[in-house]
Amino acid sequence: MPKSPRKDGAPRRSKRRFTDEFRAEAVRLLRERQRAGDSATEVARGLGISPQLLHEWADRLDAGGRPAALGETLEEEVRRLRRENATLKLERDFAKKAAAFFAKESQ
Predict the structure, then answer these.
(1) What are the two backbone dihedrals, phi and then psi, of residue 64, each rounded to the nearest 5 degrees?
(2) Whole-Å CA distances, 64 to 58, 60, 86
(3) Angle made by CA atoms 32, 78, 44, in degrees to the nearest 5
(4) Taking the model in full, what pTM does it have?
(5) 30: which residues sit within 8 A by CB, 6+ positions away?
(6) Angle at 88 between CA 85 and CA 89, to 5 degrees
(7) Which of 3, 20, 22, 24 has the smallest count of CB within 10 Å of its CB?
(8) Are residues 22 and 37 in the same domain?
């Protein structure tokens, strides 16, 4: 049975599931970006989640919730860091290509 559309006519989205690792990383990013002066809304928008959800995750961690990333084994940490490193390298390479493209366009 298809989901009924919302009042504004847009189709409803299915409920997304987030891993404990994603939640912990999102809260870590929130704390880091808030120290730099960004708002929770900006951080949440960048992650594709609602600010309310991000605040709920942060409140849960502040209340003593333990994210999976803090209890991971060394092997799990290495795997996670390698994935993160690969993602950062892709982002860096993309930024370099974009900078070169726009530098070429402005000449």
Answers:
(1) 110, 5
(2) 10, 7, 31
(3) 30
(4) 0.48
(5) 40, 43, 44, 54, 58
(6) 85
(7) 3
(8) yes
Domain ranges, residue 38: 17-71
Q: Which residue in this structure is represented by tokens 């951080």?
A: 43
Q: What is the token pair recorded at 32?
A: 């880091």
**Alpha carbon distance 29, 58 (integer Å):** 11
> Is residue 82 located within the same domain as residue 103?
yes
* Residue keyed to tokens 């990013």: 29
pLDDT digits (tens, 9 = 90+) for 5-28: 667 776 666 778 888 889 889 999
Query: Which ranges of the chain would DSSP assign to H, the alpha helix?
Result: 20-35, 40-47, 51-62, 74-105
Q: Which of 75, 88, 72, 86 is nearest to 20 (CA)?
A: 72
The tokens describing 55, both together, are 């605040």
Q: Give per-residue pLDDT as tens, 49-102.
A: 999 999 999 888 877 655 544 556 788 888 888 999 999 999 999 999 999 999
Amino acid at 43: V
